[in-house]
Design a protein that fits this description.
The chain has 318 residues and is α/β, with parallel strands linked by helices.
Length: 318
């Protein structure tokens, strides 16, 4: 890693793995400021069900990019990247190190790799490509792609209709190849400008994580999660198809309040959906490039112990 670039630390991990507690602990000991990387925490009014840091926790360790969007307004990965880069620059200007914490892997991916400025879908162009395929076959269409974008074509099977169609559509609608656009995306890579260290908490004991998920969901209900969703339902501008309401937990409580499930079914489905989210997050992380996995075996004390033993991470702040 280059010692001349500004530093950034990314702390990832599945839901309920202890990321927030660890981030707050780091904030007390190291010159870091926290930036949230969570697609639910950006929304105002989604507090209990999103496990948003409490007022006391935020007082001890302020989190940026919390409560920045009304739940009626969708928030994209592209918007997150723009907001996060602004916060990163602000933190560095104050002589501190950004600590980006969360489990929304698409946000991390957008931040690390950038986003290609691909043209929007064009139904007419796509229909013309499909007509060519019906007349000549997809291998023939693939050869048209070879003529304009050989680099991308060599990675696409001649019968992979969806990828061939999209690559040709990009070229015909914009006059630029997908290879060119992806090259520009690579130039947006976070590591091109920053010294990035990626750390992820990875539960070694899946059963323990499932217990933590169940316990946390039950605690959310005790803390007033249902009343929180009732308040959201009372708003005429919110509905279940919005990204905020589709968030894990909120969707299940919304269905319960709509009379579609019993309380027991809501609890069971909420826990199951959270477990599925954790599974997807861990799948992402197992194939994630450049991440330093910190395997956790028990509760938060073990996480801190392993962090203290990770000299490579500690040297990052030397």
């Amino acid at each position: 890693m280059s010692m001349n670039k500004p530093k950034i630390l990314l702390l990832m991990g599945p839901t309920a793995s202890g990321k927030t507690d660890l981030a707050i602990e780091l904030r007390q000991k190291l010159p870091v400021d926290i930036v949230s990387v969570d697609s639910a925490l950006v929304y105002r009014g989604l507090d209990i069900g999103s496990a948003k840091p409490s007022a006391d926790e935020q007082a001890r360790a302020p989190h940026r990019l919390l409560d920045i969007r009304d739940p009626s307004e969708p928030y994209s990965a592209a918007e997150f990247r723009e907001d996060a880069l602004r916060e990163i620059q602000s933190i560095h200007a104050q002589g501190r190190i950004p600590l980006l914490v969360g489990g929304t892997m698409m946000y991390f991916k957008a931040l690390l790799e950038g986003l290609a400025d691909m043209p929007a879908a064009d139904a007419e162009i796509r229909a013309a490509i499909e007509r060519d395929a019906e007349t000549h076959g997809w291998p023939w269409v693939h050869r048209q792609l070879v003529d304009v974008d050989p680099d991308i074509a060599k990675d696409i099977h001649p019968n992979h209709s969806q990828r061939i169609s999209r690559a040709l559509e990009v070229f015909r609608s914009s006059g630029r190849t997908m290879t060119e656009l992806r090259r520009e995306q690579q130039q947006q890579s976070l590591s091109a400008s920053y010294d990035v260290r990626q750390v992820a908490l990875m539960p070694r004991n899946r059963a323990l994580l499932h217990q933590r998920i169940a316990r946390r969901f039950e605690l959310m209900l005790e803390q007033g999660f249902i009343a929180e969703v009732e308040a959201l339902m009372a708003r005429s501008d919110l509905h279940r198809d919005l990204p905020a309401i589709r968030a894990v937990g909120y969707r299940q409580v919304w269905e319960y309040l709509a009379g579609e499930t019993t309380r027991e079914e809501m609890l069971e489905r909420g826990i199951a959906a959270t477990r599925q989210l954790a599974k997807r997050q861990m799948t992402w992380l197992r194939g994630w490039d450049g991440v330093n996995l910190l395997y956790i075996d028990s509760e938060q004390g073990e996480i801190r112990k392993k962090l203290d033993l990770t000299d490579e991470l500690m040297n990052f702040f030397a």
